[in-house]
Amino acid sequence: MNVDKNDLQTRLKLIRKGFREIGLIDGWMVYEPGPKDELVSKFPVEVATRIDGLKLRQYRLGDAAELTAMSERNAEFWGSGFQTQDMVERIKRAIISSAKNERADYAVEFEGVIVGAIGINFIHDYTKSASVGYSMDKAYTGRGFMSAALLAFDTVCFDAFGLHKINIETATDNEPSIAMLENCGYKYKGIDREMFYYDDKWNDYIEFTKINKNWKEEK
Ligand SMILES: CC(C)(COP(=O)(O)OP(=O)(O)OC[C@H]1O[C@@H](n2cnc3c(N)ncnc32)[C@H](O)[C@@H]1OP(=O)(O)O)[C@@H](O)C(=O)NCCC(=O)NCCS
After folding, report:
1. How many alpha carbons lie under 13 Å from residue 10 in its C-beta half-sphere?
2. Of 78, 97, 175, 195, which has the fewest beta carbons less than 10 angstroms from its beta carbon?
3. 18 lies in which domain range?
4. What is the CATH number of the domain that holds 127?
5. Do residues 136 and 110 touch, judged by C-beta distance below 8 A?
6. Cα 77 to middle of ligand 1, angstroms
7. Ligand 1 site: residues with CB under 6 angstroms?
């Protein structure tokens, strides 16, 4: 978990909870749990979906070549959606972050083949909300796969991880993504004006949100 070094309130809160500050990176303080903490990952290794043969599973180091190939053949389709460089490093970070309950990255696997990816881009610990992103291999789109993956992932975020809210931002012209979010029960939240810079301009994004109505405070 990284916190703005100037956000003293949050830093104090984390320190009181037993988190250790292990260093500064680009103005962000990096934390790890103190040695007395028993830290159990809340993220399951595998998650079934409503579609036979389709599941989410956490990344393994051996996935690097398959993930790289998938991101390279989808480079145009995904735009800036998925980084191709340093896949091994990316997977290592994902495994460590998930163990520390800092974020979660899952491969979407259909009959043993990785066909997409879904994960938490960042968790806002203070508000119990997260920003989620996803990408599907073009060859497997239009089969309801990402809808099934997202619904399963919502359950992980809400029931296993205890989030109160999921936020997803999508380009205003991304019709499949918008249709999918509406089908999956996400509500229109608003337009984030000039959110991402690409194609030589700042682009508006639509924000969608889903609230966990069964959220209960952990005592
Ligand atoms: C968005 C994306 C993840 C959807 O994956 P998918 O597995 O095809 O999604 P699903 O099949 O579950 O659902 C897609 C929905 O969009 C609809 N759809 C597909 N093309 C569409 C279009 N051109 N216009 C409107 N709706 C469209 C489908 O009919 C389906 O809705 P339905 O279930 O009511 O039929 C996939 O297209 C993708 O990876 N796109 C590129 C990367 C991306 O945009 N990531 C999201 C960034 S926020």
Report:
1. 15
2. 175
3. 1-30
4. 3.40.630.30
5. no
6. 12
7. 77-78, 81, 134-136, 141-147, 170, 174-177, 179-180, 183
